[in-house]
Amino acid sequence: MAKNLTVTTPSDLEIKMVRVFDAPKELVFAAHSSCEHVKHWWGRGNPLDCEMDFRPGGHYRFVEHAPDGDWAFRGEYRDIQAPDRIVQTFEFEGMPGQICEETLELTEEGGKTTVTSITRFDTKAQRDGMIESGMSEGAGQSYDALDAYLLELR
Fold it and tell me: What pLDDT does 45 receive?
């Protein structure tokens, strides 16, 4: 498990991840809002093809080029409240039709930003399948890469 990432299941349909970053909220939010930044951390630090239209109703598509293959993900931005909140859908293209909704809440205290991510699924089986896929390890590795990238930006 990656350092400083807490993963829980607050309900049968949700996964909650919490991570604290030693960076101001505006910087952490910016790191989520453009391909220029996302390419540095999202795919666990692996090369990433990135398309983003970062606005409500806009879409994104990321293709991670990992040693074990290419992994494509896509979604739509449903709500963006800079620099506090991002709501988006998430779909792994290898399992089309399995769409979940992610809500990221950013809060800052003493120059440190807590990112709380709630991913909501349609069924418990979908939630459990995501957990079994290694999602928390992959998210933890991406957040470790984000932590390192934020240090470079500061």
Answer: 78
